[in-house]
Backbone:
């Protein structure tokens, strides 16, 4: 079956394509899709890709994810593309983009940061997008590369 | 910039214009204080000093500043005597204390605690040190001291010596100095180097930065030598502390190759990093630096309370 058919198979919902192979679980965690929410979740993992070599695809049936929601996955899948599907047709397609502020996804790696001790939602401001560098809103430390991955 | 109700959390929240403005107001208040002895701008206002971590001079300096402005002070100087010991959250402590006061000064061992307090409180919050993160009022008084001593900050070569890894005073000061045309020597043991993200940022902002372990090599170049204590209490393990304890001592011998006009600063308290014989030399600026805390904190309290005419 051609790859594009795999992507367009859901009648309505959101298809997140070009996720680096092996990262699909992280993506659904970030989007809060690990709990039953009424819609079907379809995962295609380790799919051949011209762009990435191997990729994962996550299809969320019956739910339209907001651009902001989807942009959170740019932290782990900066090449990801998002397709909004209606009546089996892609009605909108866009690339993910790291939002200006990351709220509630990353945990601050600084053990002495107040966000790890008090009832508070962790927040990070984007200092640079390429390479990705984030600054904790509370302790003001910056994190990059592997530290971001480790904090997800 | 409307200062009334503003929080003072991090030097990163300040522009160069903000800094210059505070220094100017502090200078005006110092002159008024010299003239009149005491002022009454903050009559009827209450400052709450919440010191979750021991500090004598910063707390006394804030208290002195508030009294000299004509206001009054409540507070505590250790978390062990508060409801925090019963498990109260920081947010609840702040929400409670703001019912009793008009401005809050907080020192807390956790980084980001002052930011959280400011988000919770509706009255202004001033950070008096949060873990090894920020100590913005110390930075402003340091800048004020330098400006009073040299008449300027631009064009100076400044050495930061000692614990550059855990020392929040040097973190904030370095960030503030990046607004000016200065050259920085970061002098520390290898184990206590300035965090990379701060050095990178200084360089990105155009500051000429030299990182070295060699104090005697750097000293002839300096206009200001800012010395910090190697803080035993900030080290995660004692062995690491013992490796660097007593790494540097500024004494008459070390200063023999310094410029005549070199000024030595220190946020205090000192242990053995500046020999007392330096106190009597024209290089010693650290006690004048302590005094600077009062007009600078008066300026910040008066501005955030909105009681000064500006």
Residues:
């Amino acid at each position: 079956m051609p790859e594009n058919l795999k992507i367009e198979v859901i009648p309505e919902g959101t298809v997140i394509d070009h996720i680096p192979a092996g990262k699909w679980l992280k993506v659904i965690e970030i989007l809060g899709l690990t709990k039953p929410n009424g819609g079907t979740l379809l995962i295609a993992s380790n799919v051949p890709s011209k762009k990435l070599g191997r990729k994962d695809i996550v299809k969320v049936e019956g739910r339209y994810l907001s651009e902001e929601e989807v942009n959170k996955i740019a932290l782990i899948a900066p090449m990801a593309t998002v397709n909004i599907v209606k009546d089996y047709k892609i009605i909108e397609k866009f690339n993910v983009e790291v939002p200006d502020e990351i709220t509630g996804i990353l945990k601050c790696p600084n053990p002495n940061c107040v966000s790890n001790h008090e009832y508070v939602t962790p927040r990070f401001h984007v200092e640079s997008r390429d390479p990705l560098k984030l600054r904790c809103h509370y302790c003001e430390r910056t994190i990059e590369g592997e530290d971001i991955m480790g904090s997800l | 910039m409307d200062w009334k109700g503003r929080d003072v959390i991090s030097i990163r929240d300040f522009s160069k214009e903000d800094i210059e403005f505070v220094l100017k107001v502090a200078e005006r208040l110092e002159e008024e204080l010299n003239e009149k002895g005491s002022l009454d701008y903050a009559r009827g206002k209450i400052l709450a000093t919440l010191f979750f971590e021991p500090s004598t001079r910063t707390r006394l300096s804030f208290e002195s500043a508030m009294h000299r402005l004509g206001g009054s002070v409540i507070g505590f100087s250790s978390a062990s005597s508060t409801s925090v010991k019963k498990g109260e959250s920081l947010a609840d402590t702040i929400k409670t204390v703001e019912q009793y006061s008009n401005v809050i000064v907080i020192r807390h061992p956790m980084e980001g605690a002052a930011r959280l307090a400011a988000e919770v409180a509706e009255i202004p919050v001033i950070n008096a040190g949060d873990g090894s993160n920020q100590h913005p009022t110390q930075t402003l008084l340091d800048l004020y001291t330098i400006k009073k001593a040299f008449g300027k900050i631009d064009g100076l070569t400044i050495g930061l010596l000692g614990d550059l890894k855990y020392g929040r005073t040097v973190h904030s000061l370095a960030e503030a100095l990046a607004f000016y045309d200065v050259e920085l020597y970061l002098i520390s043991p290898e184990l206590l180097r300035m965090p990379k993200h701060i050095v990178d940022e200084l360089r990105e902002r155009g500051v000429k930065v030299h990182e070295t372990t060699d104090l005697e090599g750097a000293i002839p170049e300096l206009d200001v030598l800012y010395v910090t204590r190697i803080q035993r209490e900030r080290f995660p393990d004692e062995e690491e502390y013992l490796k660097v304890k007593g790494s540097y001592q500024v004494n008459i011998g070390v200063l023999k190759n310094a410029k005549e006009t070199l000024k030595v600063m220190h946020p205090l308290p000192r242990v053995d990093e500046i020999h007392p014989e330096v106190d009597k030399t024209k290089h010693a600026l650290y006690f004048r630096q302590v005094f600077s805390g009062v007009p600078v904190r008066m300026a910040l309290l008066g501005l955030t309370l909105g009681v000064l005419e500006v």
Q: What stands out?
A: The interface with chain A takes residues 10, 12, 89-91, 108-113, 115-116, 130-134, 197 of chain B (CB under 8 Å). The beta strands of chain B are 46-51, 72-76, 103-108, 125-130, 157-161, 183-187, 208-212, 224-227, 263-265.
